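Tokens as discussed.
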């Protein structure tokens, strides 16, 4: 179904964007490197490919006047989620640009931030690249190219493209975010978690006959151990006083 395809694409975009944010946090830190910058480039471009796919599919559907009211409400909700994801992606790309400009890799005297984060980031980028099994060229830098200049120029250009995409989305589809109703109320995730915890507690209470016995035995054992330790302490104290 088209609705399932849209949800799958949006879920993939969210995951890649989350991976990109995780990588951006490492920029300018002690784990920063040329490999990280290349992973950032591949991940953000993967996110842009997914963003274009999401945009084209949702615009086509929302322009269709024949879809039912319920379906339109659902696609408008997906559109709001997609718009929010794009705004977050643009913010992270701007942050990556600022960090890249502030901490160029080809300037050895520029000290990196001691963030406390160590280790590689390849596993995070690999998760982003595996989403949807979309093949993507490595885009390795040729020897002699300046990664600080080349990649940052590309990043600045891509930020402008994302900004234009967001503007195009607003012009082509008139979906007011504050008019879209959420499927769940505020804090529903927390409520469901609390309900699950309460249910677990209720189950434990219902099946707690044997557990009560175990608790009683544990209390008796703990009391006996405490008494034994107290008696040993008294005997040792008496011996010390006697031989002093």
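Sequence:
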């Amino acid at each position: 179904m088209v609705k399932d395809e849209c949800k799958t694409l949006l879920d993939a975009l969210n995951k890649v964007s989350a991976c990109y944010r995780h990588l951006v946090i490492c920029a300018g830190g002690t784990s920063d490197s040329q490999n990280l910058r290349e992973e950032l480039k591949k991940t953000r471009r993967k996110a842009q490919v997914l963003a274009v796919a999401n945009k084209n599919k949702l615009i086509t559907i929302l322009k269709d006047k024949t879809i039912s009211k319920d379906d339109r409400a659902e696609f408008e909700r997906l559109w709001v989620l997609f718009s929010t994801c794009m705004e977050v992606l643009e913010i992270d790309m701007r942050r990556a640009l600022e960090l890249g400009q502030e901490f160029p890799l080809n300037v050895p005297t520029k000290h990196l931030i001691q963030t406390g984060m160590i280790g590689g980031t390849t596993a995070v980028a690999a998760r982003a690249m595996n989403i949807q099994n979309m093949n993507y060229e490595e885009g390795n830098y040729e020897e002699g190219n300046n990664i600080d200049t080349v990649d940052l120029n590309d990043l600045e250009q891509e930020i402008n493209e994302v900004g234009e995409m967001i503007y195009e989305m607003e012009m082509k589809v008139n979906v007011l975010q504050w008019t879209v109703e959420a499927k769940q109320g505020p804090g529903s995730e927390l409520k469901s978690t609390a309900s699950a915890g309460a249910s677990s507690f209720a189950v434990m209470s219902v099946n707690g006959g044997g557990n009560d016995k175990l608790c009683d035995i544990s209390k008796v054992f703990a009391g006996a151990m405490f008494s034994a330790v107290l008696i040993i302490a008294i005997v040792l104290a008496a011996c010390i006083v006697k031989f002093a």
